[in-house]
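Just curious: can you write a single protein's sequence together with how it folds?
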Amino acid sequence: MNTHPPPAPADEFPDHSIGATVQGVIETLLARIKNEDYAIDERLPSERTLAAELGVARNTVREALDVLESRRVIRRRAGSGSFVTHRSDTAAAPVSSSALASDTSPLDHLVVRGILEPEMVRLAIINMAPREIEALGEILSRMESVRTDVAAFVRQEEELYRQIAQGTGNPLLAACYELAIDACRQNFRAALQRRYLTPKRIADYQQRYNTLFNAIASRDIEAAVEFIKLHLIEEQKLLLQEV
């Protein structure tokens, strides 16, 4: 799904509000990208350099880059420059889920959790069968048996969320959350968990998840969703302490 489509040909920019000089710069840069003079993920020359090469003003280059960015041909990174985001071939391979997970920042991960988890919990309460809630309780029991083993606690925590995601009855949502779990595991949680998952905090989390389970078991959507939102706020506070 997350493919890098090829750069749009120049005639796909029939915007009469764009001046002829700017259009010429757009066409030149598109041609270079199509010919792989600038490869995927490669940084473009600076605005000053491009202006000198093309014999135009920097404002003209900047306006052309604005158009290319709006069309998702390039991506700008503050303080770093402009980078090519489109491949020149139509058969470009999709970004693998593992690469996407490893490239996800802690803040982006929390944003996605904030979008997914409240709705995930709501749907799970509506759709979970009694046996699925029983399975959730069994996971919680295993989690509550952990005292100091951080890795074991995290495994049970992941299983708890995975059971909730599957309980929504929505395979696509469950798959999306599986990617969120992968991102958490790969890029930052392993480092952070050693610092903040002390025995005291593990006990606190066990108590929290017991509260969540009780809300799910009693089909209390409002209480469960409110819990998830407050829990995510606490997670954000912990993250901000680390950055």
